[in-house]
Amino acid sequence: MTDKEAKAFYNAAAWKHKRMQILERDHYECQDCRKRLKDAVAAGHILQGEDRKIRRAEEVHHIVELKEHPELGLEDDNLISLCVKCHNLRHGRTPRRFQRKKKLASKERW
Ligand SMILES: [Zn+2]
Ligand SMILES: [Zn+2]
Prior knowledge:
5 helices; 50% helix; 110 residues; HNH; binds zinc ion; two-stranded antiparallel ribbon; single chain
């Protein structure tokens, strides 16, 4: 699947509908936050601060990448609700905060 095809997929009504369905299925709770909490309790760890919370899921992630397996793009089993932070972690992306800082830094030259 090309970038262009992926973009078209995310813009399609079928995806928007499926995305809402998955968020509802997961009760708008980040499934990675939930797992982190569950694992910690099972291991007898006490979590502090931010880590004690299950953040609100705002994004739906493809477990098997869409570009690799477009046919799984709308499969319930391949979709998981995540908060922005956990979603970035899954993709190894830099948090938005850092990107914004960079932009500001270049502005300061003027
Ligand atoms: Zn999360
Ligand atoms: Zn993702």
